[in-house]
Amino acid sequence: MSTPQAVQRLELMLRLRQSDVDKQETVVRDKHQLTQRYQKNISRMESLCQHLGASAVPHPALAINAGAFKHSLLNLISLQKQDLALGDADLAVARKDLLAAVSRREVMDKLGAAERMALQMQRERALQKQSDETATQAYLRRRADA
């Protein structure tokens, strides 16, 4: 049997589920921005590596320095790609958590809607019962007076 308190508790649970969904959306958005940042960094460093050429450096010491710089840059690109892969995995987990939170919220929303409908039907039945009793009393009074 539905009660106003049960409906209020379900509405509270729905608000809590919605706040959980909002938090998960924020996490997904942050992780997505992080992976985009990694991708931009990688593309910039790869572009920088392409523009570094041995023909641009006339002096042997500068060529060695440029080679060491390019090697360091390639190592950094490799590390950024690893971080990107980890970020993508984190993003996938965060999206899965978001979907779970959304489904929990939807279940709570359906439960709340069912409880509200049951409570409304209960109120309508009580009102109809009261109306029927009033009509019956009026009928019996008219019959007794006649």
UniProtKB/TrEMBL annotation:
Keyword Protein transport: yes
A Pfam family hit: FliJ
Stored InterPro entries: Flag_assembly_chemotaxis_eff (IPR053716), Flagell_FliJ (IPR012823)
Ranges for region Disordered: 125-146
UniProt keyword list: Bacterial flagellum biogenesis, Bacterial flagellum protein export, Cell membrane, Cell projection, Chemotaxis, Cilium, Flagellum, Membrane, Protein transport, Transport
Organism of derivation: Iodobacter fluviatilis
GO-annotated biological processes: bacterial-type flagellum organization; bacterial-type flagellum-dependent cell motility; chemotaxis; protein transport
Compartment annotation: Cell membrane
Protein name: Flagellar FliJ protein
Highest taxon of source: Bacteria
